[in-house]
Every structure is written in structure tokens, then in C-alpha cells.
Design a protein that fits this description.
4 helices, mainly alpha, single chain
């Protein structure tokens, strides 16, 4: 079993920052960036679980759900990662998205 602590920490940090962000920040793009990240994490998890299947698109549940969506998608991905390099890459994706979101 691979240690997914770096990914989990990155996801939780970003989610906490989104939850603490003012609505105006979420509206200016932070929530959209989080949704895009959640969709990418979800896509990667689905491809790892069922390589031949077409991944389903995570729905837009609204800006106030963005933190929960990245948390769920990040933890789902963590369950299917096979090595530390994959964990590091996923954590990097989360950190880069958080920087773009400005939170």
C-alpha cells in the first residue's frame, strides 16, 4: 500500500482554504479552478479503476460544494494510486490548482 499522505494533506489544505474564502473570491474563479481539479482527479481515479471505460464527468454542484468535491475526488484517487511518483504528481496538481485559485 502506498503512502498517500502528501496528496491527502494537499487536498485538505486546498479544501480548508476554499471553505475559508469569501464568496467574492469563489466567484472570481477559485471555485471554478477547484471544480476543474476535482474533475481531473476524478478522471484519473476512474481511468485507474477501469482503464477501458469512458470516465464520467463530475457535475458542477455549485461554488460552495467545490471544497467537498476536491476532497472526495482526491481521496478516491488516493485509493487507486500505485506508487510514490503518482502520489507526488497528484499532490503537485493540487498545489498548482490552489495557486491558480489564489486561496
Amino acid at each position: 500500500m502506498v503512502d498517500t499522505t502528501p496528496l491527502n494533506r494537499a487536498v485538505e489544505h486546498f479544501a480548508d482554504r476554499l471553505r475559508a474564502a469569501p464568496q467574492s473570491r469563489l466567484q472570481r474563479g477559485a471555485a471554478a479552478e477547484a471544480l476543474e481539479l476535482a474533475r481531473e482527479l476524478s478522471r484519473r481515479a476512474q481511468l485507474a479503476e477501469a482503464p477501458g471505460a469512458e470516465p464520467r464527468l463530475m457535475p458542477d454542484a455549485g461554488m460552495f460544494a467545490a471544497a467537498d468535491q476536491i476532497t472526495v475526488a482526491g481521496h478516491d484517487l488516493g485509493l487507486v494510486l500505485r506508487d510514490e511518483n503518482e502520489v507526488a504528481e497528484a499532490a503537485r496538481l493540487v498545489q498548482e490548482a490552489q495557486k491558480r485559485a489564489g486561496v
